[in-house]
Design a protein that fits this description.
single chain; alpha+beta; Deoxyribonuclease I, Chain A; 6-stranded mixed sheet; globular; magnesium; DNA binding
Length: 259
């Protein structure tokens, strides 16, 4: 099974790019983030014509997450992250596909920091960690895929000091990610490529894509009962160079049929 995560940065504006990538890569499951579309505006018909069924939690202007499955309907299990009934931001959706529970995650950016947006980011990541523990304890195979808005280590950002004040690289953000992963979850891309600078995001500003000045923000975490099935993974970075591209590229993993 090939599972991918892709912050599409406006699903309707980037629809041609998304459909082209789906046709070329042929993933079994895709987690999308930053739809920037209300529920009624999600391009379900175009995605269905490409061979994918979908569940989604949209939001006008910002946020929004979805899960696409090739040739099958994802079975929706949750459309919000538990722990804060007042949180109305569409940042989490969860569905069962092919015997695996899959979550599409769009964690808060947290800028500017310090401040309320950064506090919200850290609280959201702690809620995610608690929910991840609850999912793991069910015994179900789980993939937590998405844009975590954290570059976990210095290996996950190009050599620079220009991001030192950014919420994506703060010690508190990195500590929250480490607590989430803990000893139980496998950071799939880093496990496969332990010493490589692999990026999934290149900001539009300051010529960062041509300079390969990227960050690894898009992660796929595997529950312990899936770790042995991990056989391949990477980032389809060429999508970032296309006309009208998102500032993210899809990250993907391949799981064997049995571990």
């Amino acid at each position: 099974m090939l599972i991918a995560t892709y912050n599409v940065n406006n699903v309707n504006r980037r629809l041609a790019n998304l459909l082209g990538w789906l046709a070329a890569r042929k993933p079994d499951v895709v987690c999308l983030q930053e739809l920037k579309a209300a529920d009624a505006d999600f391009p379900a018909a175009a995605i269905r014509s490409a061979g994918y069924e979908a569940v989604w939690a949209g939001q006008r202007t910002w946020n929004g997450v979805a899960i696409l499955a090739h040739g099958a309907m994802p079975v929706l299990t949750r459309a919000e992250l538990p722990g804060d009934p007042d949180d109305r931001q569409s940042r989490y959706i969860e569905a069962a596909v092919g015997g695996i529970l899959i979550a599409s995650i769009y964690a808060p950016n947290g800028n500017p920091q310090p401040g309320p947006k950064f506090d919200y980011k850290l609280a959201w990541l702690e809620r995610l960690a608690r929910h991840a523990t609850a999912l793991r304890r069910t015994g179900a195979p789980v993939v937590l895929a998405g844009d975590y808005n954290v570059a976990p280590t210095e290996l996950d950002i190009y050599p620079t000091r220009s991001w030192d004040d950014d919420a994506l690289v703060q010690p508190e953000s990195r500590a929250a990610f480490r607590r989430l992963v803990g000893r139980s979850w496998t950071d799939a891309i880093r496990t496969l490529h332990p010493d490589e600078r692999i990026y999934s995001f290149w900001d539009y500003k300051r010529n960062r894509w041509p300079r390969d000045a990227g960050l690894r923000l898009d992660h796929l975490l595997l529950s312990p009962n899936l770790a042995g099935r991990l056989v391949a993974g990477g980032v389809d970075r060429e999508t970032r160079g296309l006309d009208g591209a998102s500032d993210h590229a899809p990250a993907w993993i391949e799981l064997s049929d049995s571990g």
